[in-house]
Target: Conserved oligomeric Golgi complex subunit 2
Amino acid sequence: LWRQRRRSCCRLGPGGPGAVMEAKKMNLPRGPENLCFDKDEFMKPDFDVDHFVSDCRKRVQLEELREDLELYYKLLKTAMVELINKDYADFVNLSTNLVGMDKALNQLSVPLGQLREEVMSLKSCVSEGIQAVDDRMTKQEDIRRKKMCVLRLIHVIQSVERIEKILHSQGTKELSSLEGNSPLLTGQVLERIATEFNQLQFHAVQSKGMPLLDKVRPRIAGITAMLQQSLEGLLLEGLQTSNVDIIRHCLRTYATIDKTRDAEALVGQVLVKPYIDEVVVEQYVQSHPNGLQAMYNRLLEFVPHHCRLLREVTGGAISR
Model:
């Protein structure tokens, strides 16, 4: 019975069946002054039935406790009915106000549908505008790339024409003379050509694969052959005559066009190889008392004696 009274008190709260309510959030109805218990005991979070009964038995008999609990239980039921009746008008008004709500919602569906169509139409227009901008930007980028290709080809042709003009100014009268048998160019002229040739190679590489470049390739090949032939001839002349200016111009030109390995190969072919062929032979070893040692000594003499001028020019010992 006592546990039933406790559950009845709890069912009055807004939290649903069995919810524990705080005293601050809900005030229980007042009972008679002569009740043997304190109504607020039911609302304590740590309420315990056994402890409650044990405490009340210290003051009254069980029969009196039962009568007081039944009396307060009736008060709780009455308070619950009054609470429901108090809010009943609001429930009735709510149901009345909802009359015609479906019709109002249906009336909103038409303008909302029109608004949705307008939004979708606007979205489509924006998407088309974005696509048009993207297409135009792509086309503009393609035009920019083609423009750069044309500019590179123009640079190639201009470089070829400038080099050919330099060659003509040195006595070359026909383009066919670039293929061979033309007079050797001077060191200063070679440096001018090499500088222009560097630009020519750069723009030619950037224009690789373009049809117009293929038409210019024979002229580029003629310039390359003339440049290489003149460099080799002048370097040999400089080495044979020990001409510092010629050697300096040639080596500087080789460095300008990034062909220093060609110069090294030429020196190896015309200087190193003949000397090695002359010294490193069996007859040389047999004809000297200390043949092997003498051969080594001759090899060590090659750089100081035969490459002295090259070392001085490349090492900066001889200034212009």
User: Anything to note?
Assistant: Residues 1-24, 172-183 have pLDDT under 50 and may be disordered.
